[in-house]
């Protein structure tokens, strides 16, 4: 029996310009927080 495969990837081509802008802003904030907010690795 063949396994059924699902395409669970987001449909990036369906995003509007506003949604792209919101997404990139969220990613930028996450990267800044991860790079500057972690005090456990600092001496």
Question: Explain this structure to me?
Answer:
The chain is elongated and about 50 Å long. The chain is mostly helical and 43 residues long. It has one helix and no strands. 49% of the residues lie in helices and 0% in strands.
Any chance you could write out the topology, listing elements then pairs?
Blueprint: H1 17-37
Features:
43 residues, elongated, 1 helix, mainly alpha
Distance between the termini: 56 Å
What is the beta-strand fraction?
under 5%
Q: How many strand units?
A: 0
Q: How much helix, percentage-wise, in residues? A: 40-55%
Shape: elongated
Number of helices: 1
Structural class: mainly alpha
Largest sheet entry:
none
Q: Tell me the Rg in angstroms.
A: 18 Å
Low-confidence stretches: none
- Average pLDDT, rounded to a whole number, is 79
In short:
By secondary structure, the protein is mainly alpha-helical. Helix content is 49%, strand content 0%. The protein has one helix and no strands.
């Amino acid at each position: 029996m063949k396994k059924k495969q699902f395409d669970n990837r987001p449909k990036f081509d369906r995003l509007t310009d506003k949604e792209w802008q919101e997404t990139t802003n969220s990613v930028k904030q996450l990267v800044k927080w991860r790079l500057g907010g972690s005090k456990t690795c600092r001496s």
